[in-house]
């Protein structure tokens, strides 16, 4: 299966274009003021309008209220909402009912117990996103460039569909693709030269690493 590739935290037309040219199937905009990747809904809407229909557009929010979601949705018209906070199963249901958009619920993973939290959202969230728990002192629930122990994922039931994020980069994406059952991968700080600054060369190198991993997988399959 070819996994989805999401490049998150985009803020410029150049970075959006390069992500799509190189094969991103999802792009994410961050609406969280404490993040160096925060973008105003109107600016994200302009970027989204340039590429709408060519890629799935994800609005990333953290415990946003309905007023904020309304504003983001009005400007950006996202294909999917990524809920990266402590949204309860009831809140996920409520957001889906009010806004009629698919929801990707993010979970912070450090231990096997953290994976049990997914159960309460089964059948409610349209997709799961598994990210590492934020390091102590970080104000960001995501975008910290840290990974969790992917070996924990072997405890997940076979049918659980998830996108993998947290600390992905050119050096570990091959292992993420071959060593997990993730149906998608999601990267933000691993293609940045400074917090919030996407680096086109690093994006190229990341996509090259994916291509290399896929070609190695294809060779293995034929042998
Ligand atoms: O990137 C952020 O600043 C951010 C802020 C608030 C919520 C989520 C955020 N990013 C998400 O974090 C992961 C991966 O980040 P990284 O590759 O480890 O830097 C990704 O899902 C982003 O959507």
UniProtKB/TrEMBL annotation:
<dbReference type="GO" id="GO:0004640">
    <property type="term" value="F:phosphoribosylanthranilate isomerase activity"/>
</dbReference>
<protein>
    <recommendedName>
        <fullName>N-(5'-phosphoribosyl)anthranilate isomerase</fullName>
        <ecNumber>5.3.1.24</ecNumber>
    </recommendedName>
</protein>
<dbReference type="InterPro" id="IPR013785">
    <property type="entry name" value="Aldolase_TIM"/>
</dbReference>
<keyword id="KW-0413">Isomerase</keyword>
<keyword id="KW-0028">Amino-acid biosynthesis</keyword>
<comment type="pathway">
    <text>Amino-acid biosynthesis; L-tryptophan biosynthesis; L-tryptophan from chorismate: step 3/5.</text>
</comment>
<comment type="similarity">
    <text>Belongs to the TrpF family.</text>
</comment>
<dbReference type="InterPro" id="IPR044643">
    <property type="entry name" value="TrpF_fam"/>
</dbReference>
<keyword id="KW-0057">Aromatic amino acid biosynthesis</keyword>
<keyword id="KW-0822">Tryptophan biosynthesis</keyword>
<dbReference type="InterPro" id="IPR011060">
    <property type="entry name" value="RibuloseP-bd_barrel"/>
</dbReference>
<feature type="domain" description="N-(5'phosphoribosyl) anthranilate isomerase (PRAI)">
    <location>
        <begin position="5"/>
        <end position="208"/>
    </location>
</feature>
<dbReference type="Pfam" id="PF00697">
    <property type="entry name" value="PRAI"/>
</dbReference>
<dbReference type="InterPro" id="IPR001240">
    <property type="entry name" value="PRAI_dom"/>
</dbReference>
